[in-house]
Amino acid sequence: MHDRDAIFSELRSTLVELFELDPELITPEARLYHDLEIDSIDAIDLMDRLRRQTGRKIASERFRSVRTVSDLVDTIHQLVNES
Amino acid sequence: MAPPVRTAARPFRDLYYVRLATTGLGFLLFGVGGVLLGIVVVPLLLLVPGGSAARRLRVRRMIQLAFRFFASFMHHSGAISFSVVGAERLGRPGQLIVANHPSLIDIVLLIACTPAAGCVVKREAWSNPAMVIAVTGAGYVPNAPTDVMIERAAALLSAGECLIMFPEGTRTVPHAALHFHRGAASVALRAARIVTPVFIRVEPPSLTKHMHWYQLPDPRAHFALRVGGDIDPAEFRRGPLPIASRAFNQYLAAIYAVEAAGS
User: Fold this and answer.
1) How far is it, in rounded angstroms, from Cα B104 to Cα B96?
2) Torsion over CA of B221, B171, B259 and B70, rounded to 10 degrees?
3) Contact B90, B113 (CB under 8 A)
4) Inter-chain touch B242–A18, beta carbons under 8 Å
5) Which residues of A touch B242 (CB under 8 A)?
């Protein structure tokens, strides 16, 4: 999963599975906390899952600046394309 | 709530001035003892040879002893009355103890009753010079940032230690609806072997969030700790953690709502 579209669609299915969200709600503009009700504790569970999927650990400082689904896609994109 | 006012119709009752003096003395002892413990006794204890686990245990035992002395002083001097039911079930390996948080001294009373417990403590304690050595030495877990708290709390339980958490985070206003943060539920499902709720009741309300220490209720406050039945977190470990921890948190909140309604 190296391009943004692939990351987005994989992320969408992860979010649907972890949080039982309606896939329609998960758009690039959707805000994690305000629109999807993913709070700081959910974020920890989400990062655990992403770490297993990508094999890389997202530093929590990096996650704190994430507001929307598209921010998260960018963060994962940077992460998997690093080094 | 203001201190009681003496009128012909309402004289001071239940030895108000005696309680005022012993309560003040109790908190003075606590403050002075706490500083001595934090900057002299605990650092000395940490110098005694032993592995890091042995040192941590030693510091926790010292804190338990000091808090037990405080609780006993407050009770026997008549400042408060204090009772606990089921204390023998506190302090088991991998046990997460959760409690409601009505008063200033809940954690003191709970630690006094729990052998070698770890606990989640406000992060500010690590910037307090009188406390930082003790909380670090005891291996207590700072409550923030949340991800670090959850990781460390879960690691402590996985290692077979006992941990105390207040899911409400901060002291609550008497008779207000309880709001449980999901952190404790998440830690429970990640790593606890057993979860044991403790119900704390303070009647009449005393040492609450918006009261000064000298605003003593009439009659004297009774602090009752009751250890509830064990909960097996394994029954809630189904499906993805975010969903499961929400369900477990609701379950915990419901237990406390029932308890509050029944009292």
Assistant:
1) 21
2) -40
3) yes
4) yes
5) 18-19, 38, 41-42, 45-46
Confidence category of residue B235, pLDDT binned at 50, 70, 90 = very high
* pLDDT tens, position by position, A2-54: 688 999 999 999 999 999 999 999 999 999 989 998 988 898 889 888 888 88
Of the candidates B22, B9, B14, the residue with the CA atom closest to the CA atom of residue B214: B22
B120: nearest Cα among B161, B74, B77: B161
Q: Which helix (H) or strand (E) holds B111?
A: helix B106-113
| B114 three-state secondary structure | coil
Q: B117 near B91, Cβ under 8 Å? A: yes
Residues of A in contact with B241 (CB under 8 A): 18, 45, 48
Contact residues on chain A for B249, CB-CB shorter than 8 A: none
Burial B89-106 (b: 16+ CB within 10 A, else e): bbbbebbbbbbbbbbbbb
Starting at the edge strand that comes first in sequence, how are the strands of the sheet with B141-142 ordered?
B81-85, B222-227, B194-203, B95-99, B162-165, B117-121, B141-142
Distance of CA B100 to the CA centre of its chain: 9
Strands B162-165 and B81-85, by their bridges, are: unpaired
- DSSP type of residue B231: B
Q: Please tell me the pTM assigned to this model.
A: 0.89
- The answer to whether A41 contacts B245, with C-beta atoms less than 8 Å apart, is yes
Tens of pLDDT, residues B80-139 = 999 999 999 999 999 999 999 999 999 999 999 999 999 999 999 999 999 999 999 999
d(CA A65, CA A75): 10
Distance of CA A64 to the CA centre of its chain: 12
Say whether the ipTM exceeds 0.85.
no
